[in-house]
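Re: that chain you flagged

S.,

Sorry for the slow reply, it's been a week of failed gels. I finally had a moment to sit down with the sequence you sent. For the record, here it is as I used it:
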Amino acid sequence: MDSVEEFEAALKPIIVAAGRDAIAQCWMVKVAANRPPWTPSGIELSAGDRISVFSAGRASIVREPNVWVGSHFSLWMRIGAEGNIFRAPGHSHTFTVGAGGQLYLSSLFPGDWADRHGTLATNPRAYERVAGTLAVLVVRWRIDPRAGLDQLARDGTTGAAIVRAEADRLKNPVTTPAGWHYLWSIGDGGIFDSGQSAAPEPIIRCRMHDDAAILQRPVHLKFDSAVKLRWSWKIDALPSARSEDAVASHNYLSVAVEFDNGQDLTYLWSAAMSPESSFRCRAVFAAPFRDGTGARPIWSCDRGWNGSEKGSAKNAMYGTTTAGRSEPRLWLSSRYG
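Prediction finished late last night. Pasting the structure tokens below so you have them in one place:
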């Protein structure tokens, strides 16, 4: 939901019911999208508190109103001034507080993080060209959150539908594949899920809309010309029907190798570009991962399962230096806006 006003109206009955039965307390907090980097909510959380967060709204560029992101991607949270930053895997999130402290809220777009505690890497003046408001409902539960969500989701109102989406997400959790982790600066978008094929063999599913994520895995080996990268993939739908080398259509699904010299080699599935072509990614937030410097070789898109293999000798033709680097990381990355 992008409308802050509709969001507030839909969830007003929940706010009115605060202090009764399931809900111990709840708060509606507004976050100005042009205020970097953190907004103190005034909400003090204690260790063991069971919390659900719901959000709405968008952040946009003043002179480019069609360039915007929703609250599900722009909203970040931190508990305490030195706490670790995190985001919700969608428009809602339920968690148990570890270390207590004040809840801080941030609208990150169009910025980036410098560290895991929420230091801004972007010049704060970049936010002078941002407009918009995020609305955040914070609920402290008196009972188990699953039971509380089910209790509030019983009727057919818009507010109940918002709550029901979080209840359904908790009942059908997405499981991050073993040995993999989300890139901390983009956060856990909840879009990569472990599973099994009909074989059965372990697989990683990617399901997303209007979001972005990078899933990483460290690889400990001597990286030389004998190393091969081999994978099988099945594409049901690509995020873009246009050429992915343009900022406006830079939406893609890829497998990549990141080297410890800051470069990466990303194999990109494309519906429009010629196989074996490549481009240098220099998009900053449009990517929206970071200031990309890696090459993007292009893969054709076919239906059904396909086996693919690339050798490290290909790196030279795409301009990625790997000499002396021995511990690359694998990426699974996806962006759809």
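What I noticed first: The first helix runs from residue 4 to 16.

Talk soon,
D.
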